[in-house]
Amino acid sequence: MTFRPRRASIVFYVADIARTERFYNETLGLTLERQEGAEPFWLSGKLEDGLEMVFFEMEGKRGDTPAVVFEVSDGGIDDIVESLAAKGVTIVTPVSEAPGGWSADFLDPDGFGLGLWQAENKPRSLK
């Protein structure tokens, strides 16, 4: 299966989501909206060019971000991860539950972390 990403988000894991919300909304003037599906909540906002920024409060992941996460808009995340692994790509996190869907993480040849995210209403496999 060939995956051709059409949309990407930059994802940050932060220590204090409320502090992050104040900084980006009040200091930088970027409008971040509170979202449900992760505790205590998560934030998302779009820049004028359409690039989405996403913030989760999470221990142990800071320093590994920001990460570029490609949306799998048509489904088939399991097939894509299987195809990447068959091509020798290092899979860091296999397909697992994420807010609103499924995600997986992998490395590019230089060790940069990349991710995939797919909405829960899309099929995990298209085979």
UniProtKB/TrEMBL annotation:
<dbReference type="Pfam" id="PF00903">
    <property type="entry name" value="Glyoxalase"/>
</dbReference>
<feature type="domain" description="VOC">
    <location>
        <begin position="6"/>
        <end position="119"/>
    </location>
</feature>
<dbReference type="InterPro" id="IPR029068">
    <property type="entry name" value="Glyas_Bleomycin-R_OHBP_Dase"/>
</dbReference>
<dbReference type="InterPro" id="IPR052164">
    <property type="entry name" value="Anthracycline_SecMetBiosynth"/>
</dbReference>
<protein>
    <submittedName>
        <fullName>Glyoxalase</fullName>
    </submittedName>
</protein>
<dbReference type="InterPro" id="IPR037523">
    <property type="entry name" value="VOC_core"/>
</dbReference>
<dbReference type="InterPro" id="IPR004360">
    <property type="entry name" value="Glyas_Fos-R_dOase_dom"/>
</dbReference>
